[in-house]
Design brief:
Strand content: 15-25%
Shape: globular
Radius of gyration: 20 Å
Structural class: alpha/beta
Low-confidence stretches: 11-47, 99-113
Number of domains: 2
CATH topology of the largest domain: Rossmann fold
Largest sheet: 6 strands, parallel
Helix content: 25-40%
Mean pLDDT: 81
Amino acid sequence: MNDCAHLFLLRWLIATRRYLLGVVATLAVVSGPAQSPKSLTENLSHAPIPIHFALKEPGFVTLVIEDATGKRVRNLISETAFPAGENVAYWDGLDDLARDTDSAAHAVYHVPGKLVNPDKYFVILADALGDGESSSPSNSKQQPHMKFPAFAIRDMVNSQRQLVEKVLNIPHLRAVIGISMGGMQTFQWMVAYPDFMDRAIPIVGSPKLTSYDLLLWQAGIHAIQADVNWNGGDYTSPPEAGLRTLADIDGLAIETPSYRVRQTSPEDFKKFVETSEHDTIHGFDANNWIRQAQAMMGNDVSRPFGGDMQKAAAAVKARVLVIVGLQDHMVNPQPALGFARLLQAHTLELDSDCGHVAPDCQAAKVDAAVERHLAE
């Protein structure tokens, strides 16, 4: 391992995912500390086919079925909450279009976790402020709940730099990589600390949210605050009605209509909604969710430059690869692509109806692009 090649993978936990710092926190199909599946192959000759995996702690899991050539057969589950310990998911043996009844005869399953090679790079993962692990409304004793002050994406980045520089004594990073809110942190990293890294790779992130993005996050905040049990954040039990509506809103945005229609039949709709709402109610703290949503809504890397994105881009010194989902309804791709043009940076455009989770559905393409960029 090259001790000088440090990667900062950022991760965040909100609504449905954790990402690396590098700011990514989890393209690795299993978000958060996780063990690999017991094996990469199973007896796939019958349905339903059990796929066993274990987690050291609760986390969000994506499982992808691929054939022997690495081509995706089925995006089985996407960023679904599972408890710590032994777990199992079941595959019906069909592909994404439910048309290949022989898929089980030739497919293998795996957790795509090759975004960064840990044998080549020293990888640092950091939880963002407000995710329930780092300082958050849910774990602060002196400033609990909504008494916890609002913070910005820049605050997340500042705290992460202190971790790297003052705690780990690392003066320079090979790269900062991040997905979703981690991608927003990556944009902030490259602008705020341009000399601190050689490479930056924001994945489905944004330097500034669009009005459509703002509408999405504001709807989630309103849903929680409209719950009669909200009590200004000082609830004694989770505001379930608000979190249930939040899960439904998130379900409309995280993937595209065509993806959801293909993945969930009308007959399976009730189970799909019940699972999504249950995972949100029991997997997220409402105060944490609101504070992180507010941080994203307020993010604008051009603010220190008088709102001029061109000046913000001129401050960047790292070589940048911008990865976007063209059909992303959760984090609109236009601002990221616009910033990439200002930087004259390389881009990878994922045209997948998986929407915001396109990096999971097209993991092989993303992994290869990241590997090439880090090696340049």
